[in-house]
Amino acid sequence: MTADESAPPELNQRLERAILDLLDQRAPAATICPSDAARAVYQGEDDGWRALMEPVRRAARRLAAAGEVEITRSGRPVDPEDIRGPIRIRRK
Fold first, then answer.
1. How many angstroms separate the CA atoms of 45 and 25, rounded?
2. What's the predicted TM-score (pTM) here?
């Protein structure tokens, strides 16, 4: 996996780990919303997790490229490089 140049490497790792940990806590075919990972990593009590949404989407792209996850929209896989609108993340 390549690092996301716009976020610190530690944050990238935490976001990727949060995605995988959340998926591990669900049924094999279950999905998570990117906001689940953003909320899991954000340390504040306010809605500052919203600033992590794009970094989470980039983390999901990296995990998809590594074959770890699949990104879906309306239950169907989408090209990780063509993510638009609401998405979900599931284990591959």
1. 23
2. 0.89
